[in-house]
Write a structure and sequence with these properties.
The chain starts with a strand and ends in a 5-residue tail after the last strand. The protein has one domain: Metal Binding Protein, Guanine Nucleotide Exchange Factor, Chain A (Beta Complex), CATH 2.170.150.70. It is mainly β. The model has no long low-confidence stretch (mean pLDDT 96). The protein has an 8-stranded mixed beta sheet. A 3-stranded antiparallel beta sheet has the order 1-2-5, with no helix packed on it. A hairpin with a 2-residue loop joins strand 6 and strand 7. Helices cover 5% and strands 44% of the residues. GO terms for molecular function: carbon-sulfur lyase activity; metal ion binding. This is Gfa-like protein. Keywords: Lyase, Metal-binding, Zinc.
């Protein structure tokens, strides 16, 4: 089990099963939401447990996607696409050690013009794989 939460502690969660490796999303929506690229992993919905949610809010960013954040401190926390069996979480919100590995960059074609994507040997996709 691994736990995580927002900056102020008003939202906490636990992952009670194995998660995917980390994917870095460079799309314009994630960049606006995070202030830079998004770093996500995902876990089966049954293995995701909210243990504190007094300030959890959801923003519907597209017809099938909602993004969870803390209404108190503003931390970006979750990416929930209704038609997928897993829920994604922002890996920067996990307590360490995470023991996660990175696997891919997605939406590289729409990355910001202010940075370069390093040649780090990870999979790369111009859009969604």
């Amino acid at each position: 089990m691994i736990a995580g939460g927002c900056l102020c502690g008003a939202v906490r969660y636990e992952l009670r099963g194995a998660s995917t490796s980390v994917t870095y999303c460079h799309c314009s929506m994630c960049r606006r939401w995070h202030g830079h690229l998004g770093a996500y992993a995902a876990v089966d919905r049954a293995d995701f447990v909210l243990t504190e949610q007094r300030c959890l809010k959801w923003y519907v960013s597209s017809p099938t996607v909602r993004r969870g954040f803390c209404a108190e401190c503003g931390s970006s926390l979750f990416f929930d696409q209704a038609d997928l069996p897993k829920i994604a979480f922002c890996v920067g919100t996990l307590d360490e050690p995470t023991n996660l590995q990175s696997k891919a960059h997605i939406f590289v074609a729409s990355k910001g013009d202010y940075y370069a994507v390093a040649d780090d040997g990870l999979l790369r996709f111009d859009d969604s794989p």
